[in-house]
Give the backbone structure.
Amino acid sequence: MRILVVEDELKTADYLRKGLGESGYLVEVALNGLDGLHLIQEGEFDLIILDVMLPGLDGWQLLQVIRRRLPTPVLFLTARDAVEDRVKGLELGADDYLVKPFSYAELLARVRTLLRRGPPREVEQFRVADLELDLLRRRVTRAGERVSLTNKEFALLHLLLSREGEVLSRAYIASQVWQMNFDSDTNVVDVAIRRLRAKIDDPYPLKLIHTVRGMGYVLEVQP
Amino acid sequence: MSLWPRALSLRLALLFALVGVLLLGAIGFYLYQSLGREIAWRDDQALLGRLERMRTLLDDSASIEALRQRPQLYANMLGNRDSLLWIVSDGGQVLIEINPAGLAVPQLPRGPAVQLRDALAAEPARLAWLHVEHEGRGLTLIAGKLLAERSQMLAAYRLKLWLALAAGALLAFLLGWLVSLRGLRPLRELAARARAIDVQHLHLRLDEVGEVSELRSLSAALNQMLARLEDGFAQLSRFSEDLAHEMRTPLSNLMGHTQQTLRHPRAVEDYQNLLASNQEEYERLARMIDSMLFLARTEQPQASVKRETVDLHGLVEQLCEYFEGMAEERELQLVNRAEGTLQADQGLLRRALANLLANALRHAAPGSTVSIASQLRDGRLEVGVHNLGEPIGAEHLPRLFERFYRCDPARAQPGDSGGLGLAIVRSIMQLHGGSVRVESGEQGTRFILVFPLAERVNHKR
């Protein structure tokens, strides 16, 4: 998977290259709009991450050029979260956007979603190690034992399972499970995770839910 | 209206001049008319007198022929060159004629009494005539006077009137200008005083002791405006200061902690800890900036809300589910007694209530109940969030909704909203045209969101 990052901020470009590289993507960086345009014309990319404030050719113009000839998904980054800006970006054909400062986990999640080809599979049964979740029967078992969860705990576990291996930020979890779309300053998500752990992790030697400090939570089998 | 001068004194002077012209003009017109009528009346009297004297002459003379032989008799009587005199027989024969202007003999209707009329010949004239019987034949005595002299006189008079009018207007303008300049001096003084007030001198006020009552109310109003501005400005600068201070604390943590760690080589774990701790501070800063932006946007005058019908009970239920875990950890009960629907921006309302609930949970006494209830009062919908716990000091209550205000400045908890949570609640309520207030006492603390009646509240019990 090749990703092009068009970003004039050196530090941002650098950590995006490193981070996405670590996640297994091939990353090319253009530090201005014209270089970006050049790279787009030269090579093929599966995703373009575009800062809209660029010297020379700005992000909006670049986006128009891309949309005229390529179906490549575009994720744009902006420091202004005025509604008009977002609307403009999406109208010009961008697929998603992130407002600076964004959490890296959030960026990674968006990148994965955009790169996932085709409609997401409707999975009804999840299984990680000896943890199983049956969406239709609303049943959760760990090591064959039935675990009873509240609605929200079930929704939370479902979210973690469906994004297995991805670090989910607290804000993302809050918005998906409770529709809280603003950055809450409470530790509600931590409390909910703690309670979920108490039911599905604590009694068992193999822990599945892991805290990634400073980023969020991930459900996976860690060696 | 572009010709209308901008200076008030000039405008007033022009108005003065206008009034002067109107007054002088009216008086002049009246005088002119009276004079004209007076002269005409006098002339008519003179003509009638002349006719009368002619008749007497005729009666005294032996015959008209005798009269014709002695023209000096009546020529003296006539005196000047404007006068006209004819004696015409019924047959149309002109017996006596004094006619220096050489007018044609006028044809006049015959009548028993003296008649008067303006003759519109080559030269306008005023005529009086009389039909008499003399020595057995009818004679028409005609006396006249050319109007040229009268018109000249009136024209001269008119000219003088116009000159007087022009001079009067000019004088009125100049005097009016002087008077207005003088009269407007307090205004200029007020302006000079106002010019002296800038950002550094917002405490200055305009003199209210002026003698002009109109200006006194103006300066009073301006002073009130200044007071409000000073207040707002003070709040703004205090806010900037607070903001800088609030940013400084996490930044100093970040710098100190990082520098301290970098002094010596450390274990990987130490670096990880540092980065994670830094991340927490960054998030705090990002949250603060988000909140600041939110506040700045909601306080813009053009900010508006997308109103939709919100089911209050459902919304609060969602929030209760969200805070359920937190509440249980603190052995708190969440009770939802909110009902009805209202027109509001669902996202903003949720945020306001979430802030209040988070607050309530933070300060509730362990084992107690936090309740959300709604009620209609005076046609307004009140949504209250109540918790038991230590009452908030009365001195804090009025300032609680100010940005960055904390009851205990030393106790900035890591989990708190950086002192912006309640300010955001207030902003959201202002956007909805409502308000928020707080009651605190032995019975606990209750934050109350008040939605006005205009929101078309549909509240069912």
Notes: The mean pLDDT of chain A is 87. Chain A touches chain B at residues 81, 101, 150-152, 174, 178-188, 191-192, 194-195, 213-215 (CB under 8 Å).
